[in-house]
Amino acid sequence: MEPVMSTPDPQQLVPTAGQTIGPFYGFALPYERGHELVPPGTPGAVRLHGTVLDGAGVPVPDAMLEIRQADPSGNVPAVEGSLRRDGTVFTGWGRCAVDPGGRYSFTTVEPGATDEGSAPFFAVTVFARGLLNRLFTRAYLPGEERLEGDRLLSGLEPERRGTLVASREDDGSLRFDVRLQGEGETVFLAFPRHGR
Q: Which residues form the Intradiol ring-cleavage dioxygenases domain (predicted)?
């Protein structure tokens, strides 16, 4: 007896990657409301957004960003449940895949400084095509008088510091573009034991 082949219902088919090399960040890793560290409309909420660009200045359509941050008082949350957004507990962590134009957007609160004399920042991790490993950087709040005294920023050449400082848009949001290489390349950080 010959096996009977059935035709699957097209509405039940899940799109799969067209090639077998990856990684495919936008396929399975993003999750519902992962970009919302706080619900939109929360008092003090701010939008952190920007574009991921390659060495030629072209938007990267398949990148993913994660942020980790302190709360407005400078305390880094240590709570479970980062993948489950309940709208009441601030976990300080979020994940966002870029759209086809390389754009990302988080809804969060502005972090406070974690140490005396340091400037407040978002820790940013970038995953993208062509990268053998993730990249680490920071997005500092603009207009902070503490920027000059920040240990990391003061250790950089003056013309490179600006790649780590977000800009304030007219609507109050924070814009932070990530340039993977080339002119205006974002400063990326290395951490001991990261490669292990």
A: 34-113
Question: Can you give the residue range of the structural domain that contains 58?
Answer: 23-179
Q: Is residue 36 part of a domain?
A: yes
| Token pair listed for 145 | 């008088």
Q: Which pLDDT score, from 0 to 100, does residue 90 have?
A: 87
17 is a domain residue: no
Return the half-sphere exposure (C-beta side, CA atoms, 13 A cut-off) of residue 168. Answer: 7
**Block mean pLDDT (10 aa), the chain, length 196:** 59 56 58 87 95 95 94 88 69 92 97 92 92 91 85 91 96 97 94 65
Query: Residue 45 maps to which CATH number?
Result: 2.60.130.10
Confirm whether 13 is domain-assigned.
Answer: no
Domain count, the chain: 1
Identify the pLDDT of residue 20: 47
Angstrom distance (rounded) from CA 194 to CA 187: 17
